[in-house]
User: Which sequence fits this backbone?
């Protein structure tokens, strides 16, 4: 199994910055990629950014140029810059594994006021 512990998030004004961190433990060898998803009220959960074991990083078009993914499979941080009210959501850390299933963090709230 894989355990994910998130930290960070909070309340910030539009244009501000926040940081989200995710620490993984357990069967790290089974993790193929790590990602951050978000879910706003009334909307589906969407991928924000992902990091593969090989080091490739991908971003959703809506956050390109504003969010930066740093770190590795075991511990990573997403820097949320130039935040907009539409970035308000619960953000979840996610681990995709090789045959061991998918794992989610507990979620952390990001609120951006206008």
Assistant:
């Amino acid at each position: 199994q894989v355990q994910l512990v998130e930290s960070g998030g909070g309340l910030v004004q539009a244009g501000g910055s926040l940081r989200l961190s995710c620490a993984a433990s357990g069967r790290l060898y089974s993790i193929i990629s790590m990602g951050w998803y978000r879910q706003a009220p009334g909307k589906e959960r969407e991928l924000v950014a992902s990091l593969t074991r090989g080091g490739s990083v991908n971003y959703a078009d809506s956050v390109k140029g504003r969010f930066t993914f740093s770190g590795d499979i075991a511990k990573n941080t997403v820097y949320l810059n130039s935040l907009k009210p539409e970035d308000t959501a619960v953000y979840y850390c996610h681990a995709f594994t090789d045959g061991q299933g998918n794992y989610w963090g507990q979620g952390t709230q990001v609120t951006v006021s206008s």
Notes: The mean pLDDT is 95. The CA atoms of residues 4 and 24 lie 5 Å apart. The radius of gyration is 13 Å. The first strand starts at residue 2 and ends at 8.
